[in-house]
Specification:
Helix content is about 30%, strand content about 25%. By secondary structure, the chain is α/β, with parallel strands linked by helices. It has one domain (about 15-245): 2-Layer Sandwich (BirA Bifunctional Protein, domain 2). Strands 1, 2, 3, 7, 8, 9, 10, 11 and 12 form a 9-stranded mixed sheet that branches. Strands 5-4-6 form a 3-stranded mixed sheet, covered by helices on one side. α1 packs across α5. It is globular and about 45 Å long.
């Protein structure tokens, strides 16, 4: 089975996806890193990363007004659409893919990635299902209180949702998997509350990686940030994601 390889990775074939190491950062750095992966996808490089948040943080969808945020938490505006997320006891992922049928053909990635996450969770004894139509929308700005086709559910509760941004055919998709309920969003149960299972970050990401390789037949090659990517991340933090001009623009 294709698996993680050594660092020093620089070139990618149409069947190889860079796997970045798990990292924890604040909201501006996480969103800047995801945008840099979209830029890399535009240049032909596929990437996958899993990450966490330095503290409980709200992320707003690109089109949401900032007044809906939870005022006691730091917040950042995502480059993707969708609704508000409270990032706390969760694993967040970002998948960035180049344009073209080799990467984006067949089942839409919003559904496909949730199916992969569900397969990974099944390895750990967690049974999930994909939400089918019709969509269910409630009078709340919280993403996980709205159900769209392809969302990942345990029973009637949403435990994984995703959003996308595309640029010149390249795709960036990121989303969260709720491991446990947050006191800052008590209306949202996580896997712990729904199943009584206490899943760790390492075991969960490992299971999802295995499912990803099995279902895509791609190689995941472990590698760090390349060349000017760290500088570009910092540039986006300062010039965009840490600025009121971006976060309070709506």
């Amino acid at each position: 089975m294709p698996c993680e390889a050594a660092s020093g990775y620089r070139t990618m074939s149409t069947t190889v996806c860079r796997l970045l190491p798990f990292a924890v950062a604040d909201g501006p750095h996480n969103m800047a890193a995801d945008e840099v992966l979209l830029e890399a996808a535009g240049a032909g490089a596929a990437s996958l990363r899993f990450y966490g948040w330095a503290g409980p943080t709200v992320s707003l969808g690109y089109f949401q007004g900032h007044a809906v945020r939870r005022p006691h938490l730091p917040y950042v505006r995502r480059p993707s659409g969708g609704m508000m997320l409270v990032h706390h006891h969760e694993i967040t992922y970002c998948l960035a893919l180049p344009a073209g049928a080799a990467w984006q053909d067949g089942e839409p990635w919003l559904r496909r990635m949730h199916r992969i996450i569900g397969a990974g969770l099944a390895r750990l004894g967690v049974a999930t299902r994909l939400h089918q139509l019709p969509d269910a929308h409630r009078d709340t700005p919280l993403c996980f209180r709205h159900l769209s086709a392809g969302d990942l559910l345990i029973g009637a509760a949403k435990v994984a949702g995703s959003a996308q941004r595309k640029h010149r055919g390249a795709l960036m998709q990121h989303g969260g998997l709720l491991l446990a309920q947050s006191p800052f969003a008590p209306e949202l149960p996580g896997i712990r509350e729904l199943t009584a299972l206490h899943l760790g970050i390492e075991e969960t990401t490992a299971a999802i990686r295995r499912a990803f390789v099995e279902q895509t037949r791609w190689q995941l090659v472990a590698a760090g940030w390349q060349d000017d990517e760290p500088r570009r991340i910092e540039e986006l933090v300062v010039g965009k994601y840490a600025s009121a001009a971006w976060n309070d623009r709506r």
